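Lab notebook, bench 4. Still working through the backlog of constructs that have no structural model yet. Next entry is a single chain of 192 residues. Request: give me the structure tokens for it.
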Amino acid sequence: CRAGRVGFSRGLGSVIMKRIVSVIFLLFVAAPAVSAGMLQEDGIETHLYTLKYPDGWRLESKALPVAVQGPDSEIMLITPALPAPDSEATDKMKDTDAMYEFWRERIRRVIEQSISEENMTIVEPYQESAIGSLPLLSGCSHTTSDKSFLCVYGLIGKGGAVFLITVEGLLKHEKNARDETVNMLKSIEWKI
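Model written out:
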């Protein structure tokens, strides 16, 4: 996540986002991710869902996490995880209370750690809501030095699919970036 590669121009992107990406990789290291063939210019297509990036946002990097840049230089990192198709072991865990608790706890830890980095002020502590019947986890913070925001979202989806999304940018673009992120998650087309 070098500054020029995906549009990080602020201190937040260059230091904190590197730490967050490291935590995300540690969180999802045991979870199968989407393959490169599933990543499209306008979204992610798998056997379980179709996720379309917000209008006006462009794909910056197909490497995981997927980097998408917004119209006002916001950066969204999308880390999807999903079970292998037709896996007997994962079929037993799909959509169970045990699976939800497993992911809820891991995502909670990532959100709490991410929004409480040095030089950040928590403006929205970890909270749980829902998109329909699916748990949506989130938290946000602001930096004091460069007037930027960082929000982290986790969605525990259908069929064992899980998303961890970070979005960051300048404070003046926070509301729009947050709305676009939640609307993107609400618009996921589930195939099951």
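Notes after review: DSSP finds four helices and ten strands in the chain. Residues 97-115 form the longest helix (19 residues). Flag for follow-up if needed.
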